[in-house]
Amino acid sequence: MFELVRWPDLPDSGEFVYQIRMLSIRDRCTALDSLIEMRIRHTVDYKKLLNSARYVLTRPDSEDGIHVRASRRHRGVFELKGGQIRLFYFVSAEGDVAVCTNVYWKAKSSRNEQNAAFEKCARLRMDYLNWWEEKVR
After folding, report:
1. pTM for this structure?
2. Which helix (H) or strand (E) holds 129?
3. Which of 38, 56, 92, 96 is most buried by a 10 A CB count?
4. Whole-angstrom distance, CA of residue 129 vs CA of residue 115
5. Closest by alpha carbon to 86, among 101, 64, 98?
6. 102 - beta bridge partners?
7. Residue with more model confidence, 136 or 75
């Protein structure tokens, strides 16, 4: 059901302790599809997101407010910031992979839309962690 897919624009994980992967559900990876579109349409913001991603490769559960912000309402859910692009993720059960779930374009200040993006990530986090528990039993 779930698969973790590499983000092609990031360096291979051999250089870092942590990894960033995109969550693919039934062979569909909406986060990666959205990022590919952002790379084409919003190059400057996409490059900022890549810089923030390199920060996450050093410590995925760290919140600094500039690159990463943790959700106040959903434990274990983070927002990776790059210009107007927001990439939502959680840290895997093993603690070594930032699992990216969805992308939000923050063109306007809409608390409801952004909260919905956090909530989507939180739901996918629970589904993935439950699936992972069943898998390792």
Report:
1. 0.92
2. helix 111-136
3. 56
4. 21
5. 101
6. 88
7. 75
